[in-house]
Amino acid sequence: MLQYDFIATEFVKKAKESITFYGTKEANLNDLLTIIIGNEADAANIQKLTGIGIQQLASMSAQEIMELASISEMAAQRIVASFGLAHKYVTSPRENRISIRLPRDVAELMMPEMRYLTQEHFICLFLNTKNRVIGKQTIFIGSLDSSVVHPREIFKEAIKRSAASIICLHNHPSGDPTPSKEDISITEILRQAGEVVGISLLDHVIIGDGKYISLKEQRYF
Q1: CA distances in angstroms from 186 to 148, 153, 194, 207, listed in the order given
Q2: Which of 26-35, 86-95, 99-108, 200-209 has the lowest mean pLDDT?
Q3: 91 burial class (0-12, 13-18, 19+ CB within 10 angstroms)?
Q4: What is the pLDDT of residues 58-112, one digit of tens each?
Q5: What gap in Å lies between CA 94 and CA 207, rounded to an integer?
């Protein structure tokens, strides 16, 4: 249970009571931020923080949060640290315990990490002969182009890990996972390269906001 070294304001007490009753998973963002900020929290600064949406708030620096909500540096740092902790949780190496059987398995594994990214990230999962994930690597950040997503970098990492196959993923910050011509072209290049080196491309999954598309499932290759 959270402990305080000060007498909590009524505003904080109400948030604490709400979280105690509903639990942290069911608590609303207002109450969670109130507890994180502490006695500096009031209706005005909480409204400013929740009004911009959790996705934008998660990408802000402590300085930007301070300027928006007029709270102390310590309180702003606690908000930043909370999002950092959440990111550590969703990106923890639980993939090492997962076998990939369907595109849905890939989406469930990676969507929490990728759906809110504001830039395109091209990530590879490396699998063993039992389709268990043995590694993960971010290959490129930025708009996809076949000149920068080079098979050499991807299969070098796969060989280093003695991978039997790979699954590639990237996100669309727009939230729409519909593949572009460039996405399809890159997939074909990687498929051909995999055949040459003997490490097959199992799938290329595009992550959107709560949605995904498997290029394998859609028969692009």
Answers
A1: 10, 13, 12, 16
A2: 86-95
A3: middle
A4: 989 999 999 999 899 999 999 999 998 887 776 665 544 588 999 999 999 999 9
A5: 19
